Amino acid sequence: MDLDVFVSAHRAEWDRLEALLRRQRRLTGTEADELVALYQRTATHLSLIQSSAPDPQLTGRLSQLVARARSAVTGTRRASWRDVTRFLTEGFPAAVYRSRRWWVPTALLSTVIAALLGWWIGTHPEVQSSIAAPGELRNLTRPGGEYETYYSSHPAAAFAAEVWTNNARAAAMCLVLGIFLGLPVLWILFENMLNLGVGVGLMSSVGRLDTFLGLVLPHGLLELTAVFVAAGTGLRLGWTLIDPGPRTRRSALAEEGRAALGMAIGLALVLFVSGAIEGFVTPSGLPTWGRIGIGVAAELAFLAYVFVLGGRAARAGDTGDLEAHERSAAVPTAA
User: Fold this and answer.
1) pTM listed for this prediction
2) Which of 42, 55, 114, 252 could pair with 196 as two cysteines, CB 3.0-4.6 Å apart?
3) Can you state the angle between helices 209-242 and 100-122, rounded to 10 degrees?
4) Do 38 and 16 form a contact (C-beta atoms < 8 A)?
5) Closest Cα partner for 215 from 287, 321, 314?
6) Please, which residues have CB within 8 angstroms of residue 250's CB and are 6 or more apart in sequence?
């Protein structure tokens, strides 16, 4: 393609489209029809230039022009409570369900790693001594020690807010950093499993593993599940960069990225529930079986939410992405 000739042939159309978009008054019927036709034609021109003779400056101008024209043609739409309801009952659970082949193995493997780390630390005194001095270890693991008082060291509401903020940040990092081939996600996962393994190992070494699990399980089941979902989704996003499947890499990343963004919002709500349990239930005076029962009930409710509501929505075609009319229109590839 001779770019100069192409620009000379179509510049007038682009200038006319820009002039219509700048109109302050309401367009007449004829002008509206002309705007639609010019929008479609300019989108085709943009596609041809991108595939045959990419020019950064011209591509930038036409991309902006097409985006403005599309907004004028399709109009804007305000979010409503219907969108919130649809997201909570269909979009979010469907996205989590669709990524189950990533986060379920991630959860199982991570749990095994944490258990192995706990066993290794608990059965090797030399490893324990490398973690902290004997006096510090006693302060951590003794009755009324730091592991036990950690959950009641701050007012419940403030502690729940702090926990929620930290966990939501970790989940968001897993989702966002997945684009880097998933490598940062693996490190975040390992850090979480190492912290859990250290606690398991140190408390089991003094015969107090039951106490530790009684403190961790009420909130930890739901909290770790949310982290595993975020990590699995991040890994899936990284794999999409390597193997986008039948989609173009750009469209695949856009689709999975939008779904991941929605999952970040949904997981923040899940972690809010987990943080509330950690702030109010874990340090409460309830018996251990009662606290663990609340944690198990919350975990089972989330799994039912994902596999029942999410499975139904996914089978109906929901991917967790935007609805079809809200996505960017596919750019034509033929004149």
Assistant:
1) 0.70
2) 114
3) 140
4) yes
5) 287
6) none
| 3-class SS shares of the chain: helix, strand, coil, % to 5 | 80, 0, 20
> Over the stretch 183-202, which tens digit does the pLDDT of each residue have?
889 998 999 899 999 999 99
How does 156-176 read in b/e, with b if 16+ C-beta sit within 10 Å? beebbbebbeebbebbbbbbb
Cα separations in angstroms, 322 against 64, 211, 231, 262: 21, 45, 22, 9
Say whether pLDDT at 288 is over 70.
yes
Higher-pLDDT residue of 327 and 11 is 11
Look at residue 261 in the predicted model and tell me its pLDDT.
80
What is the torsional sign of CA 305, 306, 310, 315? negative
- What are the structure tokens assigned to 308, written together? 């029942």
Q: CB-hemisphere CA count at 13 Å for 155? A: 3
pLDDT digits (tens, 9 = 90+) for 25-78: 778 878 888 888 888 888 888 888 877 767 778 888 888 888 888 887 776 555
Tokens standing for 153?
A: 């060291």
Our measurement of the distance from residue 214's CA atom to the centroid of its chain's CA atoms, rounded to an integer in Å, reads 29
- For the record, the structure tokens of 267 come out as 């997981």
Tell me if 228 sits within 8 A of 280, measured CB to CB.
no
Tokens of 253: 């990343």
Q: How confident is the model over 109-121, as pLDDT tens digits?
A: 999 999 999 999 9
User: Measuring CA to CA, how many Å separate 155 from each of 147, 152, 273, 335?
Assistant: 17, 7, 17, 66
3-state secondary structure of 155: coil
